[in-house]
Design goal:
403 residues, alpha/beta, 7-stranded mixed sheet, 5-stranded mixed sheet, globular, binds pyridoxal-5'-phosphate
Amino acid sequence: MSTYHKKAFSTRSIHTGEPADPSTQAVEPSMVLSTNFVFNPDEAGFSAETLDDKTPNVYSRWSTPTVRALEEKLADLEDGEDALCFASGMSAISALILGTLHSGDHLVLSDVCYAGVAELARNTLPGFGIEVTTANFSDLEAVTAAVKPNTRLLWAETPCNPILRLTDISAVAKIAHSAGALLGVDSTMATPVATKPLNLGADLVAHSLTKYLNGHGDALGGVIIGRREFLAKLRQGALIHFGGALSPFNAWLIRRGLHTLELRMRAHQDGALRVASYLESHPAIKRVIYPGLPSHPQYALAQRQMSNTSGMLTFQTKEDGMEVARRFYRKLQDFTYAVSLGKQRSLLFHISTDDILKSSFSLQGTALKSYRDFAGDGIFRVSIGLEAPEDLCADLDQALRIS
Ligand SMILES: Cc1ncc(COP(=O)(O)O)c(C=O)c1O
């Protein structure tokens, strides 16, 4: 019998990649800000072609000890072989897509996803000869129908931003693999506390580290996690040549945020469930979408695939959304009217359906009708922070009142 004991998530989130510093004996890691490193002339040359994963630190666009330690921790937390960090979530996702797909390749993308990715797919990828088809990733037949002989990558986001629709990762991984394509999953909203896409068959996982993984709203960052060999090529190509390297300062902050990720996610989930249930019975509210509520259209999948339903919820008001948004902006005290998500402070933001249409090239015909049926003229996207849920409910209640 094996004596191997895999340590718990919370233990690994603190200890992986953080031995005591042998040169100073400091218990908490120091930040290495140097942009370049002394190296033996036999170990590296001037071109990226001379570098491989055994090359020591040479220049900080390639790697630094502080960023590398974060990569080790992130790979461990996602049960992946390796991780590659970037300056932001968008930098990670665009480097992956542009560094992996070539002219003539085809991408299948979720028809609702983070606006930056949707706009990249609509405005930039066609100029590089990369073909894009979008599909509703909660509909397996639609995903299968979107795949073509030249499909190389399927890109899912679960829960997806902003409508919190879910993708069945194992089912979509089978579709991708039977077509000889890779499945990438943006798991920013779920975090590895909730879902481990690689264990469900995905090939790549992306996170905007800016969100829950850092958790305090003070550092941009992004990561791709997957096979070591694949990421070594991405480092040598897209990271070095597009240049979107993560700063050691941000890596240091994100590492510190990860120490409390599991604890924070538990509190985000508890708070979101309390606020979502409260809003569902509020007379001013038309509809609440939260994967932890039985009324979520994919509640059964959420229960099966997410061991934490996260802190994101959306709602629609009976009154015109923009009117309510103006009142929220003036009256809310514990919520901040701001974009972004996944931090200690609760955030709230109105997303009009017209805005979604601006960022999307795919919401036409039946897809547009199903989005409008779902979202009407707009939705409020809410990121529940770590404040007491009863204060958050009271704050929303006073701001919902017309006075
Ligand atoms: C799901 C998702 N993916 C990617 C991104 C982009 O991340 P970043 O803002 O770190 O570039 C965001 C940002 O909101 C997001 O919500």
